[in-house]
Design goal:
heterodimer; A: two-stranded antiparallel ribbon; 10 helices; B: 211 residues; 2 helices; cell inner membrane (chain A); electron transport (chain A); EC 7.-.-.- (chain A)
């Protein structure tokens, strides 16, 4: 159980693929102009990550070391192509709005990174869990980024959610602010870089404060000893 | 020794390639039908918005023909003919506006037999989000400003954006996009007035083929 707890913490926070490893930034920055797009790409990445992790883990004893990278790439590419076809067939609207970024999941280094660093050395249950948590961490950052950019740029949340979730979801759309001139910068890629920078800064600030807090009592103890002498 | 390991590695790689290919082929076959249906449905939905149901009783999607005209943009373009009781009533044509702000804009434009525009929709474009993308019906209703209008000859200068002295609004911060769309619809309308007979008579030759 402890190992799973550790994996959860690693994926969601301490080793988050987007915030700490800074992997997969190309799709991350490009598609997060709305929450819906972010969630769609995040879920697609998550599924590919779990699928590739499990497969890589299952075949890890058969694959000679020298050819493991081409095999991993092939496994990932297969999952992505299958995912792309399925999305084209069943969530057509979202498929169109994500466009080229679905096939580009293949090049998301977070996926091959996990295959090489974790799945090729661990049993499939743990690898699946690792994929799930890393994918979840990635998706959460995507959604957060998408939400911030959508609010600043459009004044809405969940615009076009019906493309992903079906017709009922069009009621999810929230109009928060009505802009006469939407803040274009937030929707364009530079806005993504800026918002991403602030999110990373926020995480680092939080981590630093936690570390300082953890240190403080220790200091007091040392000081007490000094005065005693 | 090396030869043996090379052969082994090659076999393993080949095995993976075969399994991967099989998986993809299976999925492709499984999803072929739904994908075709999705594309068909999307196009039909747009067609039905442009040509109201009371104007036709035929299957628009089946009544498709390919035409080649420089005025519509490079390549062949599809036309969809609508008829009511065997009488031609309206026609929708794919038009490419080659001079958008970032590349070509693909439009679907419908005309009634009287030569009026019955509707315009943007099919594909790469215009700037927030500025030029107001040509999409889900962002703005600007594209409906063509409805019911007719071009009166090639020198009809009402068919331009306001900045060029015409009757169509441009968007704040984006003139090039609406200008490209207005010009494309104008060219298509003029061509339609000229080609109407031939277009309605052209054989069906592209039904079920999606772009």
């Amino acid at each position: 159980m402890n190992a799973y707890k550790e994996l959860t913490l690693q994926g969601l926070w301490t080793n988050n693929p987007a915030l700490v490893q800074l992997l997969g930034l190309c799709p991350l920055l490009a598609v997060t102009s709305t929450v819906t797009n972010a969630l769609g790409l995040g879920l697609a990445t998550l599924l590919v990550l779990v699928g590739s992790n499990v497969t890589v883990s299952l075949v890890r004893d058969w694959v000679p070391k020298e050819i493991r990278i081409p095999v991993f790439v092939m496994v990932i590419a297969t999952f992505v192509t299958v995912m792309q076809l399925l999305m084209n067939a069943y969530v057509y609207g979202l498929y169109q709005s994500l466009g080229i970024f679905i096939p580009l999941i293949v090049t998301n280094c977070a996926i091959i990174g996990r295959a090489e660093a974790y799945a090729s050395k661990n049993p499939w249950q743990k690898s699946a869990f690792d994929g799930l948590m890393m994918g979840l961490g990635f998706t959460l950052v995507l959604v957060l980024l998408g939400a911030i950019r959508e609010i600043i740029g459009n004044g809405t949340l969940f615009d076009g959610a019906d493309l992903l979730l079906g017709a009922w979801a069009s009621e999810l759309r929230i109009e928060l602010v009505q802009f006469d001139y939407p803040l274009l910068l937030a929707i364009l890629p530079p806005g993504a870089f800026i918002v991403m920078g602030f999110i990373i800064a926020g995480k680092n600030w939080f981590d630093q404060r936690q570390a300082e807090r953890a240190k403080t009592p220790e200091k007091q103890v040392t000081r007490a000893r000094v005065t005693a002498q | 020794m090396i030869g043996k390991s090379m052969r082994h590695n090659g076999m393993v790689l080949a095995l993976f390639a075969i399994v991967a290919t099989l998986l993809i082929v299976a999925t492709a076959q499984f999803t072929e039908e739904p994908i075709k249906r999705q594309q068909e449905q999307e196009l039909l939905q747009v067609l039905n918005q442009l040509i109201p149901p009371e104007l036709h009783d035929n299957d628009l999607y089946q009544s498709c023909s390919l035409v080649d005209h420089a005025e519509l943009g490079p390549g062949s373009h599809r036309i969809y003919r609508a008829s009511l009781n065997q009488q031609a009533t309206a026609l929708a044509v794919e038009v490419t506006a080659p001079n958008g702000y970032s590349g070509a804009i693909e439009l679907l434009v419908a005309f009634t037999v009287a030569g009026e525009v019955s509707g315009v929709r943007t099919l594909r474009h790469q215009e700037t989000p927030g500025l030029g993308d107001k040509i999409e019906i889900r962002k703005d209703d600007w594209i409906t400003s063509f409805n019911g209008l007719t071009v009166q000859g090639a020198d009809d200068n009402r068919w331009a954006v306001t900045r060029d002295g015409g009757m169509f609004d441009q968007f704040t911060g984006a003139t090039i996009t609406p200008r490209a769309v207005v010009q494309a619809v104008k060219r298509a309308n003029l061509l339609f007035q000229q080609q109407q007979q031939q277009w309605f008579a052209a054989p069906n030759n592209c039904a079920g083929v999606s772009s």
